[in-house]
């Protein structure tokens, strides 16, 4: 059963997560290599464009997994 303090921690975590996501949206396109790695799929036609940054997603996933692994070793 969750108590009020647990809800507070959840809301603080969600707020910090939103701040980080907002920061990434603001600064993300200024980082030169993000989204332009070999293996990222980009298809551009006359009136259609498709972009899937698979390599970038894999690298970000590895980095986040390592960070969460470090914090879970308490």
UniProtKB/TrEMBL annotation:
<dbReference type="Pfam" id="PF11146">
    <property type="entry name" value="DUF2905"/>
</dbReference>
<protein>
    <recommendedName>
        <fullName>DUF2905 domain-containing protein</fullName>
    </recommendedName>
</protein>
<feature type="transmembrane region" description="Helical">
    <location>
        <begin position="7"/>
        <end position="28"/>
    </location>
</feature>
<dbReference type="InterPro" id="IPR021320">
    <property type="entry name" value="DUF2905"/>
</dbReference>
<keyword id="KW-1133">Transmembrane helix</keyword>
<feature type="transmembrane region" description="Helical">
    <location>
        <begin position="48"/>
        <end position="71"/>
    </location>
</feature>
<keyword id="KW-0472">Membrane</keyword>
<keyword id="KW-0812">Transmembrane</keyword>
């Amino acid at each position: 059963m969750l108590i009020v303090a647990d809800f507070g921690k959840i809301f603080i975590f969600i707020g910090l997560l939103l701040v980080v996501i907002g920061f990434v949206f603001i600064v993300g396109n200024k980082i030169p290599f993000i989204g332009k790695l070999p293996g990222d799929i980009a298809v551009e036609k006359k009136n259609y464009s498709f972009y899937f940054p698979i390599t970038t997603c894999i690298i970000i996933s590895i980095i986040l997994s390592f960070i969460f692994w470090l914090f879970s070793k308490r």
